[in-house]
Amino acid sequence: MLDFIWAGRFGRAEGRFGRAEAxxxxxxxxFGRAEAxxxxxxxxxxxxxxxxxxxxxxxPHFNAMWMEA
Length: 69
Fold this sequence. Notes:
By secondary structure, the chain is mostly helical. The protein contains 3 helices and no strands. The longest helix has 27 residues, at about 25-50.
């Protein structure tokens, strides 16, 4: 159960970090795009965590976070 809660907190922290790095220039934007590709690849992992643990409350947040990237 703690692993699932940690995954939700980690996702929110990554979302804040992604938004924070955008103003700092092209190098970090390139890094951000690489992170976005990784995020889309791992989206199903987070969905599976949310559904298998019956914590669908995380799902709207993950959808919004990946759409940002």
